[in-house]
Amino acid sequence: MSPTHTVLDSPVGPLTLVAEEGALTALLMGRHRHPGMALGARRDGDFAAAAEQLEDYFAGGLTRFELPLAPAGRPFDLRVWALLREIPYGTTRSYAELARELGGTGFSQAVGRANGRNPIGIVVPCHRVVGTDGSLTGYAGGLERKRALLHLEDPARFGEQLLF
Fold first, then answer.
1. Which CATH architecture has domain 4-58?
2. Which of 5, 88, 118, 131 could lock onto 39 through a cystine, CB 3.0 to 4.6 A?
3. What's the whole-model pTM score?
4. What is the CATH number of domain 75-158?
């Protein structure tokens, strides 16, 4: 079966959702694309559950997504993305903390690369990964979007929402 997609408006800009065989394979922000990713035909109705959960998330009523996911990635990437899904709403982890959970502090850069390859942003919350000192570093959707997502989840900790 070939992939299908839809585009949703959101408080952080347009989101392109891609699915194959009923599982979400990508959530792309703005013009962000992963090389070689096929979007397939546009089928808005195929994404009702994802659209509803994203709407609830942006309204502050959803803290964990329950959607079938099928991200394509290397085994290490898949391990990192599974750890990302365990980071609780409104909290952050550093690249070094995730590396330790995977077996060694020497994995920090590899964790960063896997985080950058995450094809299902927001749902697989790579925006919750920060530098060791708590600084906002690297985000495929842009640092302003990362700040906006963190602000949504914990406004007291992440100050004013700037861009979105």
1. 2-Layer Sandwich (3.30)
2. 5
3. 0.89
4. 1.10.10.10
